[in-house]
Amino acid sequence: MKHFRIYNPEEKIRESLQHKIDNLTKPKGSLGRLEELALQAGLIQQTLSPALRQPHHIVFAADHGITEENVSVSPKEVTWQQCLHFVKGSGSGINFLCRQHGFTLCVVDAGVDCDFPPGSGITDMKVRRGTRNYVYEAAMTPGEMDLCIERGATIVRKVNETGCNVVSFGEMGIGNTSSSSLWMTCLTGIPLLQCVGAGAGLDCDGIRHKYQVLKRALDNYRGDRSVTDVMRYFGGYEMVMAVGAMLQAAEREMIILVDGFIMTACMLAASRLYPEVMPYAVFGHRSDETGHGLLLEALGARPLLSLGMRLGEGTGAVCAYPVLDSAVRMMNEMNSFEGGKVTKYF
Fold first, then answer.
1. Each residue of 293-320: pLDDT tens digit?
2. Active site includes 11?
3. Active site residue: 161, 297, 313, 338, which one?
4. Which of 23, 144, 239, 298 could pair covalently with 140 via S-S, beta carbons 3.0-4.6 A apart?
């Protein structure tokens, strides 16, 4: 597997950052999470005046063999249909949010069971036309997993070279909440029952069936439960590609906006490989998917928003971007007490 050089941000600047934050024209701590985000951004960028440049949103898409077991209310063809919908640039949830907040949208075919026509606007990084059904066998080979990591990293290197220093990730892949649930239980020890939810809209009977299928897959698993083996056996191509992308973003010292349940599961895997990735992560929102709250707790993560969302596509991450933007603007646009000629009143 590709090796990444990821380091915790240098701490020498922390005291100066905190001093600047504490001496803006406000009571100390009165801007709450904005102050925490400003400190985080300053540490990542090693500057007292952080900036957000050329934000990109990358949607990785792939199909999952587990859909053969009827674990999703949505048919598999929705994956390729939505990919084409995204690149039309108008009608999807992620489209309007990217337009609203100035994100460049990039849609990546990691393993969709469809051959997109040349010129479709979808970046071709296809590994295979969908994973295998992990009820019976591993979802992917070790070589396919390594290829996903490398290709996810390649996408991030390309956007970083455009000047981008803040990136968010989304996914499109019918069945990927199943894979996320299995990553969650294997890598945190949280019981599978607490990790399985409605996905795209299963009813109680559907959730029960989904749990039974995933339990059978887990019972049949004979691997060593290492991070890489769990990723390979139960993962989706789009998920493993997102892990590689997150690790590359951290290596490039970029701010990473993390979306809901699936992308948080990807950050979980990334952090188990390289714990140093976590200081670069800003968790955008808590989704309504059953296991997401517990997964955030396991990571010690506090999301910025809780809007009852569970769409995926990275919508929650992009929704949270203005909060990060406000934190950065606070650092650059607020006066200090001295500069504003205001008596320090606390």
1. 999 999 999 999 999 998 999 999 999 9
2. no
3. 313
4. 144
